[in-house]
Design a protein that fits this description.
The chain is an alpha+beta fold and 132 residues long. The protein has two helices and six strands. The chain has a six-stranded antiparallel beta sheet. A hairpin with a 2-residue loop joins strand 4 and strand 5. Helix 1 packs across helix 2.
Length: 132
């Protein structure tokens, strides 16, 4: 939650987002600019700052097999969605933050409207919840 409000810059690149990207490489050293999709990099950063292993990948779908599957998510569990189509290989990843009144999923993550915030995603796009 302490990262909420971090945003991409319209001109230049936000060094905080670049720091997230460093954690989505095996060496945790290479950065990239904030115009590269960064939801998975944000999740990598958060997990590693908490002392947990990450996938060290910029791919949101790299979290489809992370930890253990759960159908009873709790705040902070990982949630993975497809983007484009379920078979496209693209997606979005973040931390479970609850359900709205329609059963859609609240997600705390990065690169949601170019910032770290809590946004709502359709339950129809859900690939799964993962716990560690």
């Amino acid at each position: 939650r302490s990262e909420m409000g971090v945003k991409e810059y319209k001109i230049g690149s936000n060094k905080t987002v670049e720091k997230y990207h460093a954690y989505s490489t095996e060496e945790n050293k290479r950065t990239t600019t904030d115009d590269v999709a960064w939801c998975a990099s944000f999740v990598c950063y958060c997990l590693e700052m908490a002392g947990l292993k990450s996938t060290n990948s910029k791919s949101a779908r790299s979290y489809e097999k992370y930890g253990k599957a759960t159908d009873k998510p709790v705040f902070g569990d990982i949630v993975v969605f497809w983007r484009g189509s379920p078979s496209a290989g693209t997606g979005h990843v973040g931390f479970f933050a609850g359900f709205d009144s329609d059963g859609n999923i609240k997600v705390l993550s990065g690169n949601q409207n170019d910032e770290v915030n809590i946004s709502v995603y359709s339950k129809a796009r859900l690939l799964g919840f993962r716990t560690y």
